[in-house]
Structure to design on (791 residues):
């Protein structure tokens, strides 16, 4: 009897089956689904298609649009602040550009605003936790760019728009594909260590839904490598950063421009008034809302604050009905349930197999398709493995990678994954990984144009407001492909920084106002919305039930 | 159909006793230190970040009851044990010199200019012993001192800048900032630049794809669908 010390005994029989079928499966390629089969699979099994998971918005620019209940709860919530308690005549920070969010998009926008001539001291980054604490740092698999001779931005465009179910804004897709090589060159110049061969050629592999190999990676720490270099540059240029100070509301001026924000110091509980000629919204996505109670790969601060704030000042949202579940979140051990197992594992050849060790889907179909197939295997066909806590999962057969590419490949190119599981006594070079879909990405968000300007429902730019990264919608349509998010934060972060730098040259800010918050409260009332929820959410609350039931707030 | 991920059966949970900054709490066994602190009632602002082992925000120092050793861990990647005395290290006061990477050369002198204290390394190896990423930290410092930046860059690639090494170092080295500089020098000056990338950028700048992309943007769903179905997929 084999022994797998990291796995409970009830898994062992299934793991042996995976081992038995491995040699045979190495020669087998699972058939790709036809467009019709994909559609059927999604409709039946993708969580987005559960009607009870969504409801139409009752208020605001997207009234009538269906969004997940958890998103609607926040978009229909009251403001956190009472405008009467805020003194807008006493300005704490007066800058040209306020960047809200210290992740990849915010950092790139900051640097490109600076490159475009805005002095460091005229920029301010406000961020909820530390600079760099964001999903960018957690991205593992890679970043797409069509730079090999057999590839082109045209082919990249087709892959993106097909992956997005043809619902993307095509001009944004074009920007993403066409700017990609420029971004990689910028990264090379900054000194990023992408995986390369001796000649300096990038080692490029497939991602789900790509037709050409164009995934650039830095082991499976690609996002970390990007983020820490951006942070180093921001520190080198001495650009001011306010940490632990999330924005809780945008500020407008009397002429209807966005003109700054109210920040909140999470530690001292005081507010700050920031006046700015341009605001770059780069607050990221919504993983911590746990849509449909899914676990998430996302950062602690991923609570879609920016979407909430932008909606209140009249920004148009799009594609928020489509949520990305990453097919392979860890389903075991319990300590890391929901954490990302990078798509690169499949990119390097690992297949997905059921309890009997048999394949059930081509492993590099787009993410929504693979996620649906895993859910069907576990709940429709009852071919999943059941964990001690009652979760279900299928096997991601990682040892195949060593057989295909040679021993040592996992430690070299999947160091983070190897370490992640080794900590819990599972050796992924020898044992498969149990996975189940996990909430990963906000496909939609604030609608922007190619200049990264936030748009109103008529498609007109909202003066003074720029947005980039996961907070935006339109780039990825209804489903983002692997490797296009790190690209997105760079391409549209850069465009937002350049656009904001241009904007401030002629912008003049008038008297600051929070009238839009008063108006919002009136709109809630008129729509008959009764709720005790307040937003933005800022952070999730994971305190134990007993503690919460006994918590009282005593002023002392 | 069911896509529920809720727990179907709930086994009886055994509780373990932990001490958060000396104060005793009972928490279910099997939780990570991070989740155990939350279970105990802490709503964390400091000492928490990605919750997945990539950001280094949740550095934690602990002792076990009756054991003289001082242990270190990432709170989000470590399971609680009975008798853990925990304190978090949410911030490391670190010297971060500023430099212009464009003006540096990829050699020891560049590193020493900003981090002369690395010559004070006494090779005690404490840094390596405490690293939650199991990086050969001391070997990397020694490689730099020999002028071998490439080795140091690769040895330290998995650094998440948690700062635990820097808080234990008797020579007061801030390793993660040193390594960041070294990796940038390697990536920028020592690794070869990609030839294909430059050729592609030239093509883009010359407008080679402009017309086709102009047309694609306007083409519409039916045309995109046809092109998508006809893709040639590289093996």
């Amino acid at each position: 009897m084999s022994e797998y010390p990291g796995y409970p005994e009830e898994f062992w029989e299934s793991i042996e089956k995976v081992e038995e079928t491995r040699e045979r499966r190495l020669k087998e390629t699972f058939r790709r689904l036809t467009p019709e089969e994909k559609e059927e699979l999604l409709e039946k099994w993708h969580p987005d298609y559960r009607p009870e998971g969504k409801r139409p918005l009752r208020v605001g620019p997207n009234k009538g649009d269906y969004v997940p209940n958890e998103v609607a709860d926040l978009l229909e919530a009251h403001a956190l602040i009472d405008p009467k308690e805020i003194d807008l005549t006493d300005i704490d920070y007066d800058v040209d550009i306020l960047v809200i969010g210290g992740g990849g998009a915010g950092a790139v926008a900051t640097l490109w605003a600076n490159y475009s001539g805005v002095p460091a001291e005229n920029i301010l980054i406000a961020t909820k936790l530390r600079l760099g604490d964001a999903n960018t740092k957690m991205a593992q698999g890679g970043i797409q760019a069509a730079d090999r001779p057999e590839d082109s931005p045209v082919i990249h465009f087709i892959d993106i728009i097909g992956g997005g179910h043809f619902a993307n804004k095509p001009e944004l897709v074009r920007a993403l594909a066409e700017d990609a090589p420029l971004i990689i060159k910028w990264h090379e110049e900054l000194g990023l260590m992408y995986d390369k061969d001796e000649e300096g050629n990038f080692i490029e592999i497939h991602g789900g839904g790509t037709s050409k190999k164009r995934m650039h990676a830095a082991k499976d720490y690609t996002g970390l490598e990007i983020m820490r270099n951006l942070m180093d540059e921001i520190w080198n240029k001495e650009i001011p950063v306010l940490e632990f100070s999330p924005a809780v509301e945008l500020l407008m001026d009397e002429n209807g421009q966005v003109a700054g924000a109210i920040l909140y110091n999470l530690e001292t509980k005081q507010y700050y008034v920031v006046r700015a000629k341009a605001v770059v919204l780069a607050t990221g996505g919504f993983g911590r809302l746990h849509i449909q109670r899914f676990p998430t790969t996302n950062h602690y601060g991923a609570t879609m604050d920016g979407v909430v704030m932008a909606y209140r000042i009249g920004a148009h949202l799009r594609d928020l009905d489509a949520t990305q579940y990453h097919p392979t979140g860890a389903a075991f051990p319990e300590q890391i349930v929901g954490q990302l197992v990078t798509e690169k594992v499949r990119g390097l050849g690992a297949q997905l197999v059921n309890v009997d060790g048999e394949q059930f889907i081509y492993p590099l179909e787009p993410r929504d398709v693979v996620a649906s197939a895993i859910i069907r295997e576990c709940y429709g066909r009852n071919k999943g493995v059941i964990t001690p806590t009652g979760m279900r999962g299928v096997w991601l057969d990682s040892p195949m990678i060593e057989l295909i590419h040679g021993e040592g490949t996992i430690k070299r190119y999947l160091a983070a994954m190897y370490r992640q599981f080794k900590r819990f006594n599972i050796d992924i070079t020898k044992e498969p990984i149990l996975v189940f879909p996990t909430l990963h990405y906000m496909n939609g968000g604030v609608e922007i144009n190619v200049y990264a300007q936030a748009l109103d429902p008529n498609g007109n730019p909202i003066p003074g407001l720029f947005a980039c990264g996961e907070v935006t919608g339109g780039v990825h349509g209804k489903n983002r492909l692997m490797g296009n998010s790190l690209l997105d934060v760079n391409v549209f972060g850069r465009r937002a920084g350049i656009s904001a730098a241009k904007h401030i040259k002629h912008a003049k800010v008038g008297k600051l106002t929070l009238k839009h918050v008063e108006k919002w409260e009136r709109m809630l009332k008129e729509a008959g919305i009764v709720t005790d929820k307040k937003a933005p959410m800022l952070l999730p609350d994971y305190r134990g039930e007993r503690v919460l039931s006994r918590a009282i707030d005593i002023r002392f | 159909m069911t896509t529920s991920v809720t727990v179907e059966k709930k086994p009886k949970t055994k509780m373990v006793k932990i001490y958060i900054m000396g104060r005793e709490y009972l928490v279910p066994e099997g939780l990570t230190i991070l989740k155990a602190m939350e279970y105990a009632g802490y709503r964390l602002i400091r000492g928490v970040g990605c919750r997945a082992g990539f950001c280094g925000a949740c550095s934690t120092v602990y002792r076990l009851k009756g054991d003289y050793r001082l242990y270190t861990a990432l709170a989000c990647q470590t399971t609680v044990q009975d008798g853990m005395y925990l304190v978090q290290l949410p911030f490391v006061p670190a010297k971060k010199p500023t430099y212009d990477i464009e003006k540096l050369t990829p050699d020891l002198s560049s590193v020493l200019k900003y981090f002369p204290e690395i010559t004070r390394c006494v090779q005690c190896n404490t840094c390596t012993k405490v690293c939650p990423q199991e990086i050969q930290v001391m070997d990397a410092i020694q490689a730099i001192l020999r002028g071998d930046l490439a080795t140091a860059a690769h040895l330290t690639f998995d650094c998440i800048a948690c700062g635990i090494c820097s808080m234990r170092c008797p020579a007061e080295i801030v390793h993660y900032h040193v390594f960041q500089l070294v990796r940038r020098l390697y990536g920028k000056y020592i690794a070869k630049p990609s030839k294909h990338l430059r050729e592609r950028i030239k093509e883009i700048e010359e407008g080679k794809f402009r017309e086709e992309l102009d047309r694609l943007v306007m083409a519409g769903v039916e045309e995109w669908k046809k092109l998508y179905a006809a893709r040639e997929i590289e093996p």
Summary: The mean pLDDT of chain A is 97. Chain A is about 35% helix and 20% strand. Residues 170-190 of chain A form the longest helix (21 residues). The first strand of chain A starts at residue 54 and ends at 56.
